[in-house]
């Protein structure tokens, strides 16, 4: 009988002890849920927010400061925003961007918007980073980009007059590490939502399109003409990308393996992520290697410039003739439509700028 | 001796917990539909993709690089004529090896059914433009210039054409539409796949096979040199797909 009493007493003590934790007040930063545009709410699935990195006011503020701060680079000369500038929909105007030593990369900097709706969470042109948090790890230590180390970065931030307090406000700890840095940056990046283009307004009945723009949309949606929709979505998918990887017939001989380098599967050689067609007015040059300076060159590529290769996407049709052979009028109209997807409010949004 | 009491209680609980096993007779059963694929009996998964290794009835060698298709409207008809329709649809994605198994949320009463069937694609009541967020998110839509709604199937790959060049094909099935005139003229191309009579005694799994080769042969021998791309606005091609597709599915087995 004594044994039973002992057991029950122990159990009660455990229960009481575990309850006592509930009285400790834990610091909780201010929740700041993403403001999901109505069009997105109506048409597509909810954005991806990691359960271990919820959006908070303090986290976003910190992420924004880090995004614009060259402290992340080895010699304090380069911030994320140097290659991902707000006025260019968070890319830059260069074909290849230079790092802290002036060395050029081999891929065009990607624009940043609507990143929380990348459901497969594969980032970069070649899909080499899984999740936005992990993506942010790469440029900081890349030897031809920021060329820093996370130990150095954490130390500089720790010794900074403001950052320890900002991390404390965002995450409840002033001990700074790479994980918290990338979490904060990812929170800021998820707020970069673009949903207010001329075409968006047309879809919600608050604007009209010209005859040329409407015809351009039809060229985009017509499988016998542009047939852009299979990879770039439609009025029912406001992302304007499938976020998947395709070989779009740029080269007969593939030298940059793209996704194939990441997966090791030769069937993926020469495949790169379909970029969103939003904000093309601000994001030239185009393609993973920035080879096309203008939208006209891009359209001409799909119309007459396709190159056959073993992994070219079956959706690239009439390859033997170089492409879909659009008329001059259809090309002009397609371009006019594509430009209606550009969101001037987005690039002028003061929430996204550094003051 | 006192220790025997808790051991006995523990054992009793363990034995009782076994009571929910499938061996028991249930009055309501879950039905699961598993989809597997073959080329004339040779099994196909995404590991067989991207290599030209199949020959269609017309003699063209081909590969598969993408295969996904929509099934919906699972219907169970009792012998007394009562019909039970299970809500939901499933986008079978062989490329990504996802949704190869589908269990509707609703259950059905055990008993004998004169037929269990599903619809390939969407019927006209379900094929409403833009209303399914998951399908919109994966760009499964049909352009409104072709009537809107959704694809039924996307089968893509390469074939060796009559100039021995590897050429892409995009065998996309949708509701047939003739867009040559002032107004669109439609023809239904969804079809019912009847799995036959079955007595459901327990949770049941229907193992369904799609023979991909059938899309190219019966009753219409498919010439990829002629019909390889831009098939969505091709009314006659859609009718041919519809006719061939009806022979592509079969019930391999039912486990319960």
TrEMBL record, chain A:
The keyword Oxidoreductase applies. It holds the Pfam family CCP_MauG. One of its GO terms (molecular function) is peroxidase activity. It is found in: Periplasm. Keywords: Heme, Iron, Metal-binding, Oxidoreductase, Periplasm, Peroxidase, Signal. It comes from the Bacteria. Residues 211-342 form the Cytochrome c domain. SUPFAM superfamilies: Cytochrome c (SSF46626). Its main location: periplasm. This is Cytochrome c peroxidase.
TrEMBL record, chain B:
InterPro entries: MbnP-like_dom. Residues 29-226 form the Copper-binding protein MbnP-like domain. It comes from the Bacteria. This is Copper-binding protein MbnP-like domain-containing protein. It comes from Flavivirga aquimarina.
């Amino acid at each position: 009988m004594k044994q039973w009493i002992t057991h029950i007493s122990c159990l009660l003590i455990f229960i009481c002890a575990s309850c006592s934790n509930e009285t400790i007040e834990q610091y909780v930063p201010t929740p700041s849920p993403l403001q999901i545009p109505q069009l997105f709410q109506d048409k597509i699935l909810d954005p991806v927010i990691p359960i271990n990195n919820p959006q908070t006011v303090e986290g976003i503020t910190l992420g924004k400061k880090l995004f614009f701060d060259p402290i992340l680079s080895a010699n304090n000369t380069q911030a994320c925003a140097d290659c991902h500038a707000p006025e260019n929909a968070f890319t830059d105007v260069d074909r290849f961007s230079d790092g802290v030593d002036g060395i050029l990369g081999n891929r065009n900097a990607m624009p940043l918007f609507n990143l929380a709706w990348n459901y497969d969470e594969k980032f970069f042109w070649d899909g080499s980073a899984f999740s936005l948090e992990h993506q942010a790890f790469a440029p900081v230590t890349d030897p031809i980009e920021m060329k820093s180390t996370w130990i150095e970065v954490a130390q500089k931030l720790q010794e900074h007059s403001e950052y320890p307090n900002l991390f404390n406000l965002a995450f409840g700890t002033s001990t700074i590490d790479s994980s918290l840095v990338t979490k904060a940056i990812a929170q800021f990046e998820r707020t970069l939502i673009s949903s207010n283009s001329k075409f968006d307004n047309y879809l919600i009945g608050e604007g009209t399109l010209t005859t040329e723009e409407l015809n351009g949309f039809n060229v985009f949606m017509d499988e016998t003409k542009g047939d852009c929709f299979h990879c770039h979505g439609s009025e029912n998918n406001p992302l304007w990308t499938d976020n998947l990887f395709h070989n779009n017939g740029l080269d007969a001989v593939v030298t940059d393996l793209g996704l194939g380098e990441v997966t090791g599967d030769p069937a993926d050689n020469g495949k790169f992520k379909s970029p969103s067609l939003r904000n093309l007015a601000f994001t030239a040059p185009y393609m993973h290697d920035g080879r096309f300076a203008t939208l006209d060159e891009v359209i001409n590529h799909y119309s007459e410039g396709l190159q056959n290769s073993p992994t070219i996407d079956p959706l690239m049709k009439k390859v033997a003739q170089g492409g879909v052979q659009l008329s001059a009028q259809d090309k002009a109209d397609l371009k006019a439509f594509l430009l209606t997807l550009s969101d001037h409010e987005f690039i002028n949004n003061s929430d996204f700028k550094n003051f | 001796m006192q220790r025997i009491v808790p051991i006995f209680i523990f054992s009793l609980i363990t034995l009782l917990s076994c009571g929910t096993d499938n061996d028991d007779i249930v009055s309501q059963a879950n039905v699961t539909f598993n989809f597997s694929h073959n080329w004339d009996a040779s099994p196909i998964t995404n590991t067989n993709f991207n290599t030209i290794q199949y020959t269609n009835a017309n003699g063209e060698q081909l590969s598969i690089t993408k295969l996904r298709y929509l099934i919906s409207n699972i219907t169970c008809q009792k012998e007394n004529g009562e019909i039970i329709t299970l809500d939901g649809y499933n986008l079978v994605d062989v490329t990504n090896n996802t949704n190869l198994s589908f269990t509707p949320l609703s259950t059905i009463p055990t008993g004998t059914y004169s037929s269990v069937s599903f619809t390939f694609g969407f019927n006209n009541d379900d094929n409403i433009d833009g209303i399914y967020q998951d399908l919109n998110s994966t760009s499964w839509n049909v352009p409104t210039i072709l009537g809107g709604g959704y694809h039924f199937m996307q089968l893509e790959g390469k074939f060796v054409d009559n100039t021995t060049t590897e050429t892409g094909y995009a065998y996309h099935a949708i509701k047939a539409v003739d867009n040559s005139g002032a107004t669109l003229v439609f023809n239904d191309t969804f079809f019912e796949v009847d799995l036959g009579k079955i007595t459901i005694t327990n949770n049941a799994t229907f193992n369904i096979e799609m023979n991909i080769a059938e899309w190219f042969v019966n009753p219409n021998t498919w010439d990829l040199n002629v019909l390889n791309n831009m098939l969505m606005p091709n009314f006659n091609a859609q009718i041919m797909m519809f006719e061939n597709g009806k022979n592509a599915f079969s019930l391999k087995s039912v486990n319960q």
